[in-house]
Write a sequence for this structure.
């Protein structure tokens, strides 16, 4: 069967027209709109949250927010274009999807860099190191993981602690009843209300909830550490140029000493909303991050 040259040309043109147009990169969108959308999870004290006692100003604040604002300032200089910041609230369950479907350009929160998550998004160099622990009521006899066999426990949906908890429960045949919480606050409140015997989460977040509770003396954080978690900023998967600019910005923030200044501000000084000092001296892991900013830090996968 023979086809005319015209028919082939028309057929190819029709096929090309039917294909979706190649979208520009995320950095192209940022340049065009002169706006960068920063995603944040609320109540992740002191990384990203709003002041619950200042309803006139609900602008997000926190350690990760300060790092992101510093990155944006450096991006503005690199692009020779002042960028407007727009904040977009996300949850722990939908934050990666918000990056993937273009709702946000940079995630400024409490998120660990893992190989599994790298399939969906890219990560900056690490900006913080934390560990998974659990919180109980101080009057509880529960001290170790072994004490939680057959107990009601909780962690927050979409987080690493929940993935670790589920795997540990299965591997060690602990028969714990795991109750997923939708938010960090809900998970902590499950312990407060006696609906769960323990809440598993990153220890620095647990410290923030306890410090801002009505009766901090009513809670106790486990002494055991279950996993080191390197926090980083998350950004779109497909944009290598944006990745390079963010990486350069984080490297400059660390080497200039500004990351240590942000640490002092949010972990060793009084912070909103109650002007409570978390009094968390820099860990050896964080000090190592400062001394070796080029070292790759990726958490173990549990998903």
């Amino acid at each position: 069967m023979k086809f005319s040259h015209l028919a082939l040309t028309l057929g190819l043109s029709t096929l090309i027209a039917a294909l979706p147009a190649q979208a520009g990169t995320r950095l192209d969108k940022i340049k065009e709109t002169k706006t960068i959308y920063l995603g944040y999870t609320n109540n992740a004290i002191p990384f990203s949250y709003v002041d619950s006692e200042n309803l006139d100003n609900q602008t997000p604040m926190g350690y990760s927010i300060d790092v992101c604002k510093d990155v944006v300032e450096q991006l503005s200089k690199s692009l020779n274009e002042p960028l407007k910041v727009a904040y977009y609230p996300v949850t722990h369950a939908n934050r990666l999807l918000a990056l993937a479907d273009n709702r946000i350009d940079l995630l400024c929160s409490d998120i660990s860099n893992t190989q599994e998550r790298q399939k969906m998004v890219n990560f900056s160099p690490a900006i913080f190191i934390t560990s998974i622990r659990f919180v109980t009521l101080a009057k509880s006899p529960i001290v170790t993981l072994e004490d939680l066999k057959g107990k009601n426990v909780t962690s927050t949906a979409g987080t690493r602690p929940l993935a670790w908890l589920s795997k540990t429960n299965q591997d060690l045949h602990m028969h714990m009843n795991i109750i997923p919480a939708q938010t960090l606050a809900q998970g902590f409140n499950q312990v407060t209300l006696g609906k769960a015997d323990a809440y598993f989460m990153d220890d620095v977040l647990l410290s923030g909830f306890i410090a801002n509770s009505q009766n901090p003396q009513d809670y106790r954080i486990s002494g055991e550490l279950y996993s080191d978690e390197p926090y980083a900023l998350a950004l779109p998967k497909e944009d290598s140029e944006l990745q390079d600019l963010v990486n350069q910005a984080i490297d400059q923030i660390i080497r200039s000493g500004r990351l240590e200044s942000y640490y002092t501000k949010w972990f060793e000084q009084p912070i909103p909303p109650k002007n409570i000092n978390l009094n968390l001296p820099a860990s050896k892991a964080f000090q190592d991050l400062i001394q070796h900013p080029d070292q790759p830090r990726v958490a173990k996968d549990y998903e």
Q: What stands out?
A: Residues 27-130+229-291 form a domain with the D-Maltodextrin-Binding Protein; domain 2 fold (CATH 3.40.190.10). The chain has two domains: 27-130+229-291, 131-228.
